[in-house]
Hints:
The chain is α+β, with helices and mostly antiparallel strands. It contains 7 helices and 8 strands; from the N terminus they run ββαβααββαβββααα. A 3-stranded antiparallel beta sheet has the order 2-1-3, with no helix packed on it.
Amino acid sequence: MEVILRQDVEKVGLRGEVVDVAPGFARNYLLPRKLAETATPAKVAELRKLEDKRARHEAQSFEQAQEILQRVEAAELRFDVPAGETGTLFGSVTATDVAERLWETEKVRIDRRKLDLPESIKRIGRYQIPVELFADVTATLRIAVVPEGGELPPQEELDAIAAAEAEAEAAAQAEAEAEHEAAEAEIEAVVEAEEEVEPDPEAEAEQVPDDAFDRAADAADELPADAEQQPDRPES
């Protein structure tokens, strides 16, 4: 099923792109959350016109790309976003957000798909994002993601916060892996114990019950005394 994304969706696509997704994923996730809309022929045609218009503002030659590179690297994009005490954003800064802010502030149009931003930005901080402007021309775009109503702390503090969070995540991951291994070991121990006590049908068939000997002995005791002796064979 083809849909037009209304927001950047990680591992799916960028806003304004036409993507082909599973019908269930579209009906149960993208469409109810207004992350996408159905790709009708009219909407797709309108989208293509807009993309062609934007493309005319991008670098069309090596020389143009060199000029744009200087403008891009001289600028710093600032995003004031809601964030928690640890610096984690309540939302994210996406490739589409960066491309649109660069156009708004610097009137520079870039292909957001050529931003080296594999995932959206989810923490405050200063970022340097490579962006390909033209063949063999790559600029470094500086971005400041600032907590709303405040300013960025010194870089040393940002690094310390990031390191502490990474350490906490690593510890949580290690604990989860240890619990998983312990659970697997417990399951294996139970399975091995069950295999040890599981009766062997063939062995049971060959084994004579203990009480069979007792019953045979009792039967022998009940026989008459003369029955225990074999009669003498007559002499010929």
